[in-house]
Design a protein that fits this description.
Radius of gyration: 18 Å
Number of helices: 5
Structural class: alpha+beta
Distance between the termini: 16 Å
CATH architecture: Roll
Strand order of the largest sheet: 11-6-7-8-5-12-15-14-13
Largest sheet: 9 strands, mixed
Number of domains: 1
Helix content: 10-25%
Strand content: 35-45%
Length: 294
């Protein structure tokens, strides 16, 4: 990795003790989703079979795993699952180039917001999985209220972002090397129960709570995990036969962090299965989480 280039360097979100690694989606149409994410974000298909596609940065960092299950039922926003996967651009200039890329290709978006800590675009993939593509403002510019971080929702000044790049150097040929998944936002059945698990067991800190949603992070980031009941209040266990979110991974920065998480999972009586890379558990709604050491 060329660490001399800001576009090649993962940001603060992915240098914390715990951070989001990969997201696994169950795809009813593997070709359609593979093509969509490749073109939308410039991801490279790093591995492909009839049943699986792994997509990531040109340098080989896997971000998405798509599993083909054509018989799966469509996802249902009233159930527990994925609200959106949030792809974090390493610089505002990378984000600007991406904005011009989707504008030139007439990619439909569902919204755009200025959250104070970040500037974000929202989309849905062809099977209804939510997507956020965003850049972060520097942490020293984040507004705070005690231990919490202010994250408003205001109109986004898109023109101001685009002005950050020279029109003659605005192409977006591929995903920048530092692109990562900055956070994942989940649909859950109960916010308090989500906090009990992701704070009390996983070990994240609450950074904001508002109107049926909570936001939690590791190491002072604005949020690695969001959880809301906006469409899914009272949702029960996730149906494994539905398309959409299958699992996501959380990376631990080192062995000590990994051991601490493992100890909390065992103490809480959470289901724990050993994997070649670490351990797997599930949240109260059956969403699978893979813990791996970075």
């Amino acid at each position: 990795m060329d660490t001399s280039s800001p576009s090649a360097t993962p940001t603060f979100a992915n240098r914390t003790p715990l951070r989001i690694g990969r997201v696994g989606l169950t795809a009813r149409n593997l070709d359609l989703l593979t093509d969509y994410y490749s073109k939308l974000l410039g991801l490279r298909v790093l591995e492909r079979t009839d049943r699986l596609a792994r997509l990531g940065t040109p340098g080989g960092v896997i971000l998405l795993e798509l599993e083909h299950r054509p018989e799966a039922k469509p996802d249902d926003e009233r159930t527990a699952g994925l609200y959106h996967t949030a792809f974090l651009m390493p610089t505002r200039q990378d984000h600007a180039r991406w904005i011009l890329h989707v504008a030139q290709n007439r990619v439909p978006i569902t919204g755009a917001s200025d959250h104070g800590v970040s500037e974000a675009f929202y989309l849905d993939d062809p099977e209804g999985n939510g997507i956020e593509v965003y850049n972060d403002r520097p942490p020293d510019r984040w507004q705070r209220e005690g231990d919490l971080i202010v994250m408003p929702t205001k109109p986004l000044d898109i023109e101001a972002i685009v002005r950050d790049v020279d029109p003659n150097e605005s192409s977006y040929p591929a995903a920048p090397e530092g692109l990562r998944i900055g956070h994942i936002h989940l649909r859950v059945g109960d916010v308090d129960q989500a906090e009990s698990f992701y704070r009390g067991v996983v070990g994240l800190d609450r950074t904001r709570a508002r109107g049926g949603a909570t936001f939690m992070s590791s190491g002072g980031y604005h949020h690695h995990i969001g959880a809301n009941v906006w469409h899914s209040p009272g949702a029960g266990q996730r149906d494994p036969d539905r398309a959409g979110l299958s699992w996501f991974s959380i990376e631990a920065a080192d062995r000590d962090v990994m051991d601490d998480v493992h100890a909390r999972l065992k103490k809480a009586g959470a289901p724990v299965t050993s994997t070649p890379a670490g351990v797997e558990t599930a949240d109260p709604w059956g969403t699978r989480i893979r813990f791996v050491q970075a």
